[in-house]
Amino acid sequence: MKNTCESLSVRYRYITIFFFFLFFNFSFSQLSSFTLQVTATNETCSGNGSLTFTVANTTPGATVIYTLFRLPDVISPITITSTNSFTGLVAGNYRVVATQSLGTASNSQQQDITIVSQIVLLNYNLVGENEVCGNDGKITVNVTQGNAVSYEIFSGPMIRPLQASNIFTGLTSGSYQVRVFDNCGEGVVRAFTVDANATALGFYNYHYILDTCNTINVSDQVQPTLPNGIIAYPITLQYTVFPPSGAPIQYTQTINSGNPNVSYFSQILPLYYNQHYSYSLQVTNSCGEVYVKSQTIDVVTQLDLRIVLTRCDKMIRVMPVDFIAPYNVTFLSAPSGFNASLYNSNHPGPFGNEEAIYYNPSIPLPNGLYTIQITDSCGRTAVNSILIEATPPVEPRLYVNEGCQDGFGGFYIFSVISMQNVTMTAAPSSYNQNLPYDVSFNLDSVSNDDHVFLMGDLPQGNYQFNITDVCGHIYILSGVIEGYQDETTINIIENCGSFDIDLHHTSNSVNSPAFFLQKFDPLLNAWVHPLTGVVYPDGSIPTILNSIQLINNTVNYNFAFTGEFRIIKDFTSIGSGVYGICIKTLDEFTFTGLPEIDNVYSFQCNDGSYDVLVEANGVAPLIYRITTKDGLPFVIDNGTSSFFPSLSPAIYNFQVEDACGNILNRIFEISDEVIFPITPSELCAGQPGSLSVPNFPFLHYEWWKDNNTTNILSTTNLLQLNPFSLPADFGAYHVRITNPGNPNSCINEVIDYTISPDMANPNAGGDNNVSYCGSQGVINLFNSLSGTYQANGIWQETTGSGVLNNNLWDSALVNPGVYHFTYTVNGLCGNSDESQVTIEIKSTPQAPVASVAPVVCDAQTFQLFASDIPNATYQWTGPNGFSSTVQNPTIDNASNVNEGIYTVSVFEDGCESNTASVEVFVNRSPAFDIVNECIGNSSSLSAVPLNDSFNVDTAVYSWTYPDGTVVNTNPVTITGQETGSYVLTVTSANGCSASKSIDVLCTNCGIPRGISPNNDGLNDTFDLSCLQGIVNVKIFNRYGMNVYELDNYVDQWDGKDFKGRLLPAATYYYVVKFDTGNVKTGWVYLNY
């Protein structure tokens, strides 16, 4: 009995397990094919990107979890969550996998999506107004990029707490640190110096002109008396006139604004002709300071006469002084034969404000004494005399102008009398020209002025010229060219977010140079104005439109720019017959305004960890931190130490903070050794040279040459080779680097550098352009060079992604774009070779979403759908060799060979997206015939399945009658309905449909009960046209006699017998035989 019970129990368990698996399979098959929609919120602040997940058509009761990957890593998820969003993401490409679970059954959907970096870094510049009258300095923040929300001064003579306004007023002079916060809470610091302007004024350049016969217009000029002074507007002017007799007269005017360096003004006062009187001028500035001057006035009309040489002739220039135009000229006496009208056709006038010239190129003025009187419009006269004598020789003047190049210069010669010929008779041996040498072609060709001789590009030395003027006078002039020499001291004073330039420059050029600051734009490959970005045309004269002008021998303040800069000067030189412009670069420097991480060096330990050194620069002291590891929070606050020991391989975010409060983050992947490079200086024979490695004060260095390890050449990061000697200094140099202060440190490295004869021909390889689709991780730039190369060069990036570490560039940390790199191999004595590598990281197109209609039926056309990706081309592949480049292709006459998985990807700019797939099942379409039957006396249509293509009980029917009536049953009775085409659509349970039509000629299939052949058009015949398949019809009278018979009958009997005779009205019996074997009989009444 026990065994029987156990047997039953076991059987019961097996049955239970069977039903469990049956239920499991049923549940799995019942999980819905849900949809996933992922929406990205782009990164606008560091790490604030997010993804939101939405699912639809999930199975009731199922749970959904989301697994998030950052591509290309699809192994280690960032998170697994059941919430419908995830935040704290940086820009990049992500994959979301949504998994629906119910019991042990599950299915999933995935979508790739991109979070775009829309971070706009805050940038601004500061402009200010100096303190003038005390506590009236001003700083204005001009935001050029980003979204500033609050402003503060946190260091300086005066403090301003956080405020919404971008303007700070009421400041005293001094150095300030301004911090601006953006909408992400990031603070950027800039330093700015508010200077104090002196306001003391002096009076200069008094002059006057006669306004009328009774008024005079006096003009004065005030300007600051100190170099940093300004005019504090508005200024009030008070004139007080003290006439020769009578009470003083006052005039007042106000000048509200103007040039801060100089102000010109005038006032019309009474004129007391030929009398001595005065006026005082009182100037009061906006600070309330008063400055006074007194000026005497003594006006008498005068006559100035000048003799002007024209080639070898002379002219008389009559120039009245203190007169009112017009005026007339009278020659009171003149040499014999002089006729004034021959020398000026307008004589004796009137003449306007211009001078009167007496000259005739055909008739020289007679020598002798001329006495001339002028009379102005006020009737006032003036008399003067002038003596014309034979023209004496006037020796030309020679000036030396040092040239643009060291050791070269030129000569500028000016002659009052036009020069006819200039011959060089002496020159240094370095001037390669036979002497004497006619250099008359260097007479000024620009303005066609033979009074000026210009000759440049001459080597230094002694020169002599013989000059003949048009009057036949001969002159011998000598000059010495020393060659251009200059001395420049430039100190770049770095502040928090800005820099000052202390410029001191001297040279032996006679021309006053101008100095300018320019910034290099790597995208335009041009020097530009640091603020406006206007391009400076190379070789042209700099202007304030494309450069910032600097002042020599002083500190130029407040340049709140970052980048690569240069200071240039321009001055005038002399060319052959023309003036030239010299442009010389005095200094080049880089200012970032922020701390900068130059390199991160990693030294591998035996346990696989790394000792890491961060090489950074900025306003000291610097604070070093690590804030993340593989994208997750991981904090090491290292204080002022740049040494991070025992770091495991990972991607770290290193952070450096400078003394200004600026913070720089830079991500480095620590996965391999990155050791110090050895950098040579310019190695020239006989000149000082050196080899160096990065300097960390806590490290120990030991240098030796070749295999001589006992002769330590240096114990610092610098090995001096002074002087560098060939071939003695050829050889292999080694430096051992250790960390004696930390006995557990893994830093114990020997680095080698060979100075060889090959360095006379440095080889950086060939240029190359490389493009990739999507991130490639860490790229070794050496693999991007073409041809052979020497590996001891220096890599630099000109596009500033910030992720270059020696020759390793981490493309996983940059946005798609074009990046430029320069590889420089330095040889001996400044000889170098350079190659350019351009890497384009193309965007991986967004993967499309693939779909198909819910139901695909055989023998029909179905269409595949891919979501719209702008500017992309599509590629579909699928079963039965299917391939298409159409976004939404169609497949005709579907069958089971078209079943399977269809895959689509898109291509954009040569890059392929991830693929998307959809599975297609081809369902059987209903196949049927329509049967037209007459059942009883009712006409009927019905659908009959073919080959069991559908279940008649579960199918859906839709009949459409000729009049548009729709009926949804099967079969349908159409007795009495219109004749015509009847259309049936059958939809099977799998959703497939098929349609077919039948033409119905009549809808009344009953046999008439009577006929009346009287030609009235109604029941004239025994009409059986609605019956199908009639073989034979017989008509019998009531006595059983066959009176009519016809095969293939339709409607021919009209009450007549075989012989065409009318039969009597009566009831007749019919027999109708069908091709199915059926027979119908009955009675029909004949009546007329």
UniProtKB/TrEMBL annotation:
Keywords: Membrane, Transmembrane, Transmembrane helix. Residues 953-1000 form the PKD domain. InterPro entries: Ig-like_fold, PKD_dom, PKD_dom_sf, T9SS_type_B. Gene3D superfamilies: Immunoglobulins. The chain crosses the membrane at residues 12-31. This is PKD domain-containing protein.
